[in-house]
Design brief:
The complex is a heterodimer of chains A (504) and B (137). Chain A has helices spanning 12-18, 37-43, 47-50, 55-58, 67-77, 121-139, 158-164, 168-171, 187-196, 243-287, 289-305, 312-343, 353-367, 387-404, 462-472, and strands at 22-26, 32-35, 79-87, 93-104, 110-119, 143-148, 153-156, 202-209, 215-226, 232-241, 349-352, 373-377, 382-385, 411-420, 423-430, 477-481, 487-491. In chain A, 42% of the residues lie in helices and 24% in strands. With 504 residues, chain A is α+β, with helices and mostly antiparallel strands. In chain A, strands 2-1-5-4-3 form a five-stranded antiparallel beta sheet, with helices on both faces. Chain A is elongated. In chain B, helix 1 crosses helix 5 and helix 2 (37-45) packs parallel to helix 3. In chain B, strand 1 (5-9), helix 1 and strand 2 (30-34) form a beta-alpha-beta unit. Chain B is globular. Chain B has a five-stranded parallel beta sheet with strand order 2-1-3-4-5, sandwiched between helices. Chain B has helices spanning 13-25, 37-45, 66-75, 93-101, 114-131; strands spanning 5-9, 30-34, 54-57, 84-88, 106-109. Chain B has one domain (5-130): Rossmann fold, CATH 3.40.50. Classes of the chains: A alpha+beta (504), B alpha/beta (137). At the A-B interface, helix 10, helix 11 and helix 12 of A face helix 1 and helix 5 of B.
Chain lengths: 504, 137
């Protein structure tokens, strides 16, 4: 034993047993002659189980080279070292860093091998893990940088090279401020102060600057880097190029702004049109009425003051002039009401339709006490909508039913509802003169009448008004009828909504 | 106090003629007609003119509209309590509101039907010239 100058109080095997490494001695055919405690602890075999066994059979050794070539080198150099895979007694595979030494006898003939094995499994796994991570970092398109708490760049991946334009050697060892634009000077200091104080991950959009001086929109994520004792020793900096995203965001913002501008413009136009319509209907109300008063007034005065000079025909014609004037007045009023209906602000309230219908029925009965009319009104019908408008709607429908049953000896008018396809359909039904369904399309057109004036009075605006009220409540209206067998008007009052005014 | 003068502010000669005819038939008051708002103010502002018992005022008038005339009448101490009846063809609710807000004593829509019109004018004449009493500063 060279190198030992003082006699030791241990035997050689006792010394070998002190080692954490697995140490065993083999003869030249691989048979185990000695098996230390380290080997027992590493592989799980007792010396009694191991000694006399062929080591590579016992441990299912996987060699990096064929065994004869290892032995060849061992013989040539006296030693060999390399990595092997051994299987333990309980079947675990260990990566082993092995060092073999050859023992020769006095004549130089090989007589044995000393194997010293160290378990490097954990170390290799960690190394592989690191390599994988390094590869991930390296192939990322994001710039991944680490920096010390003083802001000195420590690592710089190829993503960072691409993004910022500095090569690794130009960046590592320099201050992170090299990529901070002057107007944001101090931002990195703030970030690092926050990290130093134990701040958590931060993510924000900011601007950095490339080597060529062009600014760059980035989404930045900052993580604290800790050592094994959890002390913060630096910060990672992951930057993603968001130039494209910013561009889209700006485009979207621009589109939204122009949309808002256009909506505002349209609203102004609409308000302007509404104002014009308002003053138009004002003029209609005022200026169209005045001449009618003159026509009627002077006709009347003629009838009074010049009666002795008028023959019967003249008198009759003056009466016709006056009647026409009256009708014209009614038409103007109906027209104004219709346009007012379309423009009036909608209220949304709970409206008792049955109550309204009952009131209107009483009013109608009062207006013609000589008539016999039976009203059948389904109780407790309600709707959400504008009570004024819904009153006008029922006045028109019930009024029509009343009017067109004038010739029926036993008039029956019904107001009710039924549910069809989960939708409530309201109806007003009468047993009056009805109409021919082929003209149903004309029903709701303003000033369109299906009966002549001598038969039934009217302006022709009633159902147009009804249709508009139904539309403003988001509903539909239609009718079923046949000549002389009554008419039924069906309508829904869907979701009340602000329907824009329609031209008269 | 005993004046029976009616100041008729009316730009439509037909309406003026009809109004005159109705009042004359019942021998109600004397009528002085002016054709627009500016003339109405000029008449009332001149202290040499006879103070009317009532003003029948249309809203839609050339130059100065009826509501503006009304506001000026109310702003003058001399005419502050002068009875003013708005007589208009308009049926607009907004006109009623602004008329009363500006200090109208009464608001009447001129009917198209002449019988109704005559009725309205005669009753107005009887009431405002024959019955109503006002006060002056």
């Amino acid at each position: 034993m060279t190198g030992i100058s003082t006699p030791l109080p241990f035997s050689d095997s006792q010394i070998l047993n002190l080692s954490y490494d697995a140490i065993f001695l083999l003869d030249m055919s691989g048979v185990i002659l000695f098996w230390n405690r380290g080997a027992k602890e590493m592989y799980g075999f007792e010396p009694s189980e191991a000694v006399s066994q062929v080591s590579h059979e016992l441990l299912h050794t996987k060699f990096p080279l064929p065994l004869p070539r290892i032995l060849e080198r061992l013989e040539r150099n006296g030693r060999w070292s390399g990595e092997l895979v051994h299987t333990t007694r309980d079947g675990r595979q260990l990566i082993i860093s092995a060092q073999w030494s050859l023992q020769r006898d006095g004549s130089g003939r090989p007589i044995g091998i000393l194997e010293v094995n160290r378990d490097v499994t954990q170390q290799r796994i960690t190394e592989r893990e690191h390599a994988r991570l390094a590869a991930l970092v390296e192939c990322s398109h994001d710039a991944i940088i680490s920096k010390s708490l003083d802001g000195i760049i420590e690592t710089w991946n190829s993503g960072a090279e691409q993004l910022y334009g500095y090569s690794r050697s130009e960046a590592v060892g320099h201050s992170i401020n090299m990529i901070v634009p002057p107007e944001l000077a101090g931002e990195e200091t703030d970030i690092l102060n926050d990290v130093r104080k134990g701040g958590r991950a931060q993510q924000f959009d900011t601007v950095r600057v490339r080597k060529d001086g062009t600014p760059l929109d980035v989404s930045l994520t900052i993580f604290p880097i800790r050592d094994s004792s959890a002390r913060v020793i630096g910060a990672s900096h992951v930057a993603r190029d968001i130039t494209e995203r910013k561009r889209f965001e700006n485009q979207i913002r621009a589109i939204n702004e122009s949309l808002e501008r256009r909506v505002a413009e349209r609203t102004r136009e609409l308000q302007e049109t509404n104002r014009e319509l308002e003053s138009f209907s004002y003029s209609v109300s005022h200026d169209l009425r005045s001449p009618l008063r003159s026509i009627d007034g002077f006709s009347r005065l003629l009838l009074e003051e010049s009666l002795p000079n008028l023959d019967e025909r003249a008198i009759e014609r003056l009466h016709r002039i006056r009647a026409a004037t009256g009708r014209m007045g009614q038409l103007i009023d109906a027209l104004l009401d219709l346009s007012r209906l379309s423009r009036a602000e909608m209220r949304h309230e709970q409206v008792g339709l049955s109550t309204l219908a009952t009131q209107i029925a009483h009013e109608l009965e009062h207006s013609a006490p000589e008539r016999r009319v039976t009203f059948t009104i389904q109780p407790n019908l309600t709707a959400t909508g504008d009570s004024r408008l819904l009153r006008v709607l029922l006045e028109n429908l019930l009024g029509n039913a009343f009017k067109f049953t004038a010739k029926a000896p036993e008039a029956v008018i019904e107001f009710g509802s039924r549910v069809q396809n989960a939708e409530e359909i309201l109806f007003v039904k009468d047993n009056g003169v009805g109409f021919d369904m082929q003209y149903a399309g004309e029903l709701f057109v303003p000033f369109q009448r299906l009966h002549n004036r001598t038969e039934f009075e009217g302006t022709g605006v009633g159902l147009a008004t009804v249709r508009r009220i139904v539309a403003r409540h988001g509903g539909r209206i239609w009718a079923e009828a046949a000549p002389d067998s009554g008419a039924t008007f069906y309508f829904t009052l869907g979701n009340p909504m602000e329907v824009k005014w329609e031209a008269i | 106090m005993g004046s029976d003068l009616i100041l008729l502010v009316e730009d439509d000669p037909d309406d003026e003629e009809l109004t005159r005819t109705c009042l004359k038939a019942h021998h109600i008051g004397r009528i002085h007609t002016v054709r627009d708002g500016a003339e109405a103010i000029a008449y009332l502002d001149d202290p040499h003119h006879e103070m009317p018992r009532v003003v029948l005022l249309d809203i839609k008038l050339p130059k100065l509209n009826g509501l503006e005339v009304l506001r000026r009448i109310r702003a003058q101490p001399r005419t502050e309590f002068l009875p003013v009846v708005i007589m208009t063809s308009s049926k607009q609710e907004s006109d009623r509101v602004s008329s009363y807000r500006s200090g109208a004593n009464s608001f009447v829509t001129k009917p198209i039907d002449f019988d109704a019109f005559r009725d309205a004018v005669q009753q107005l004449g009887i009431y405002w010239v024959g019955l109503n009493e006002t006060t002056y500063h």
